[in-house]
Each structure stands twice: as C-alpha cells, then as structure tokens.
Amino acid sequence: SDRSGREGAGSDAARVSVEKGRVEQTDWLVLFYADGDNNLSPVIWRNVQQACNGLADMSSAKKTIKAVVLWDGTARAGEATQQVPSGTYLFDLNAEKTTLGSAVLPATDYSSTASWLRGTDRNQEVNMADPATLTKFLLWAQGRYSAARTVLVMSDHGAGSHTNRTSASDR
User: Fold this and answer.
1) What are the pLDDT digits (tens) for 16-31?
2) What is the pTM of this model?
C-alpha cells in the first residue's frame, strides 16, 4: 500500500511504498529524530548507540520494541569525526550491544526506501530544522510500522518546544 502526505507549500510529499504484508507490527515504536548536524554530533551518535544497548537489555521483555532513527550527521570541518557518519540516514536499530563512541551501529539502513532523503543535487542531506522533514519522517514510519504506542524523541540544540503561550522568554 502507498501512503502519502502533504506538507506546506513548496515541499514534496513523503511517499512510502511498503510491500503488502510487510508493515511491521510492534507494541512500542520509538522514533528518534537525531539532528547531529552540529557540534553535538558525537554526543547524539552515542545516544543512538545507547538505544541499541537498551534494546539489547530489553530483548527478553514481553512487549516488542522497535527503534528507528532519522540520523543527520555533520560534514563540517572540525565537527566531523571518523566514528560518526555524515549525511542523513534512516536506521532501524538492532537489539545488539555496541561499544559507545565507536563507528559501529547495529542497525539496518533503510535510507534507500525514502526518496525524500535525497536533494535535487542527489546529496543525501536534509534540513532537520524544516518541519516538513519531521512530517516526512513520521509519514515514512507510519507507512512502515504499526504500533500500539509510539514515542517521538527529538535531539538537537534548542530550548524545547513552545507556543505563543509558552515562549522561551516565559521559562
């Protein structure tokens, strides 16, 4: 089945194609929006690795847990490290232990299933500050997984979520 969504004017719709019967069922779906395209890249990468270790620790739980990461690593000189991938990737994390801070991530790379990860220049880099990117990630996950409960984790610089009623200056 195909699922598509519309974002604001000028943005491309997220299109997700999943083979019939291939939507993965899980009790819990953790969606990790990991914007490491800055000086936090090594720290956020370590958080992603910690999620793999946590899944391994929970592997005997009665409930099924699936964790998916939209990772955007930095390619800027001085911020990139050999252990942290630059560019944007969709990872389905495996429940396996890994060494924190290493280049190893036990995961399946599903980046090829999301055409919206590639810009017009064919570069695999998205703007994680654009709300349309978050929308596309959520639509992609909705087309690929079915979960009783879903958690969204967002990681980047920032002052947290706020509205007109709760602006950053009100805190």
Assistant:
1) 555 555 789 999 999 9
2) 0.79
